[in-house]
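Bumping with the actual sequence this time:
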Amino acid sequence: MIKLFSQPEGASPITDEQKEGLKEKWVSTQEELNQIEQNNILLAQEWLFSSRKKNTDFADISFIVKLHKKMLGNVYSWAGNLRATQTNIGDPPHLIRQNIASLRLDVHTWIENKAFSQDEIAVRFHHKLVCIHPFDNGNGRICRLLADYINEQFFDNEPFSWGSDDLFVNGTARSTYMNAIYKANNEQIEDLVAFARN
């Protein structure tokens, strides 16, 4: 079982129940866990970006759940299950489906009406989904992946760099990212947009 389950700043702590859902029982360090998670996420990225056809349902709850399962399903038995308990951040579990449905309408309206710059639309979607926090773990990663998907599939832009560093470890990039998230919570989205493109 994991000996070094240290989570980076702002990440949802991993519970004992979530640890029990780990499929690879040989994993004994945080570094090993990070590696198998990353390997699974790379497979999900390949799946997500392999189709040349725009998936207009990218913000639908069923698609988000499917993507989460593809991202972490080889690692955890609970991957693809919506959060059922209150965490340090995130909407109450009983509002997750409703709030994602509302976000889906919002993002399609933003895209259709060009309500914001292309980068800001993708980053706003990322931020709103992070705030909903639909899963026990992997929220930031799925939100960044979906923002990149919006950028590539709807706007034909390059994916974001997200600070060009590993955001799953504490450091300058993670701290800058979290500070930008906190500012976005107060409708100051500019720093998060700049960080995404940094």
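The tokens above came from a reply further down the thread. The radius of gyration is 16 Å.
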